[in-house]
Amino acid sequence: MKKECCNLNEVIQEFYNFLKAYVLGKVKNKQVAEDIVQEVMIKLVEAHQKSPQVDNIKAWLFQVSRNTIFDYFKKHNIEANFDNDWKIESNDSNENSKVIVADYIIPMIEMLPSTYAIALKMSDIDNIPQKDIATKLGLGLSATKMRIQRARIKLKELFIECCDIEYDKNGAFAGCVIKKHCEPLHQVTKNLESKSSS
């Protein structure tokens, strides 16, 4: 596994907003999400002081984020749910190519027709209230809700079209392998691997 020299400023700049979106998706509270990400970054600084080399900085950050969220949930008696932290891999797979599906969500949304992509990104990535989306898009609230719902369906169809889904022995989602014809996602994998090794 490749070693990565951990430039803290670059790591924070690259991962801060992505981690915040991930944490916010779990805790559903902007202030709590901000506090948790700050705590994760403090842990990063402390870990860096002990050892400047990290095998996989992204995996480390997300594992620490998961643990910190879990601690928050436990402290506040909230049931933890990490069912959506799926794994995905490319056809030339190895352990290093496995990443969370969240890495692929935005690129896959951008593969949708812009009518659906814009509404879905505003709703599910930027967490903008649907009534505000309706105003920005010049639509009625019911039309906005319908567009977002249809966009989610189309995203799911695209996911099925691009990935061979794998299930565990209990029938739960275990991961997926990107199909050969889905070049945009293979390009995403190459970009992610390039970032993680640089």
Automatic annotation (TrEMBL):
Claim: Flavoprotein is one of the keywords in the record: no
GO molecular function list: DNA binding; sigma factor activity
Chain coiled-coil ranges: none
One Pfam family matching this protein: Sigma70_r2
Biological process, per Gene Ontology: DNA-templated transcription initiation
UniProt entry keywords in alphabetical sequence: Sigma factor, Transcription, Transcription regulation
Keyword Transcription regulation: yes
Domain RNA polymerase sigma-70 region stretches: 12-76
InterPro entries: RNA_pol_sigma-70-like (IPR039425), RNA_pol_sigma-70_dom (IPR014284), RNA_pol_sigma70_r2 (IPR007627), RNA_pol_sigma70_r4_t2 (IPR013249), RNA_pol_sigma_r2 (IPR013325), RNA_pol_sigma_r3/r4-like (IPR013324), WH-like_DNA-bd_sf (IPR036388)
Residue intervals of the RNA polymerase sigma factor 70 region 4 type domain: 108-155
Family statement drawn from the similarity comment of this UniProt entry: Belongs to the sigma-70 factor family. ECF subfamily.
Identification of the protein by name: Sigma-70 family RNA polymerase sigma factor
